[in-house]
Specification:
Length: 317
């Protein structure tokens, strides 16, 4: 029985089957989007802009997951909860994330992989309850701090202040992150450690410091995303759980460990969510958003575990 199931799974993961299923699914989605676009092009574009706003927030959180996974091969489940806890200052929550690494993960550097995974889940609950203790169960929002309504229009397409503020904060953050990782000495050290930890240490790179810097960066990204989300939506102590899972799905979809993939996956997830909740012709609706997101996660792990832009490794083969 087990061998039959394994054989079926291998057959379904063959390139021909995966490509066929992928093309068929994409064709259905394109047809559905095309019909909705034809029915009301202006409304369709406005919904798409809302999706890009959501996707930009998901992308910043997904980059935090990707940075840590690229260095430690660890899913930092506390990352989404650090996002929910944030909203005061970026440096403070960079320190929070760095402290989590120093206390919870560094002592387990050479432990079996299950140990840091369980620790990450435990840290998630700890940060979750800290948020509950500080903020209570009510929703909080800073939307009154930014202008509401339309910033400018191009024809009938309206660009909201939410989108303008989100891009004004997030785009410079992503540009700075890209420059840091690609051009600075510490960024090159991060890339080296992600490729081979032992060889990096032999070449004189301080691995522990490099990992700490990675956690500081991830915490900063979570805080930036938390600030944008606080300004545009409502945040509660448990907001990080759902958004963290969505951002994690985006990172897996794009190829976890791949920075460009994380941004691409987040943009796609943001668009999928907005189209699902906003389009009028045969859209499943908001009740199905979580189901769709996790269906995408499961399908990605089953059929293309390396993601859209990731590289297949022996573990994912």
């Amino acid at each position: 029985m087990g061998s039959t199931a394994t054989s079926v799974l291998r057959t379904m993961r063959s390139p021909k089957v995966v490509n066929g299923l992928g093309f068929g699914f994409v064709a259905i989605i394109v047809l559905w989007l095309g019909v909705n676009f034809v029915k009301d092009p202006t409304y369709f574009v406005n919904i798409g802009l809302d999706g890009l706003t959501r996707g930009s927030v998901y992308g910043v959180v997904a980059l935090g997951y990707t940075l840590v996974y690229g260095i430690l091969q660890l899913i930092n489940f506390a990352h989404g909860d650090v996002f929910a806890l944030s909203g005061i200052t970026v440096p403070l929550f960079a320190v929070v994330n760095g402290t989590i690494e120093r206390i919870a993960y560094r002592p387990l550097r050479n432990a079996p992989r299950l140990a840091p995974l369980i620790t990450a889940v435990g840290m998630s609950f700890i940060v979750f309850n800290i948020s509950l203790g500080l903020y209570g169960v009510g929703y909080k929002s800073g939307s009154e701090l930014i202008p509401q309504g339309t910033a400018f229009s191009i024809g009938a397409v309206e660009f909201s202040w939410k989108l303008v503020v989100a891009l004004a904060i997030i785009v410079p953050t992503l540009v700075a992150l890209s420059w840091f990782v690609r051009s600075t000495r510490q960024g090159k050290a991060m890339r080296a450690v992600s490729q081979d930890t032992e060889a990096s240490a032999m070449m004189g790179i301080n691995v522990n410091r490099t990992i700490s810097v990675t956690f500081f960066l991830a915490g900063s990204l979570a805080a930036v995303a938390g600030l944008v989300y606080f300004l545009e939506f409502q945040v509660r102590f448990d907001s990080g759980f759902q958004l963290g899972l969505i951002a994690f799905t985006a990172a897996v979809l794009g190829g976890i460990g791949n920075l460009t993939g994380a941004v691409l996956g987040a943009a796609l997830i943001g668009l999928i969510q907005s189209f699902n909740e906003g389009l009028l012709w045969y859209a499943p609706g908001s009740d199905w958003t979580r189901s769709i997101v996790f269906a995408i996660l499961i399908a990605t792990l089953v059929f293309r575990p390396e993601g859209l832009l990731g590289e297949r490794t022996p573990e994912g083969a």
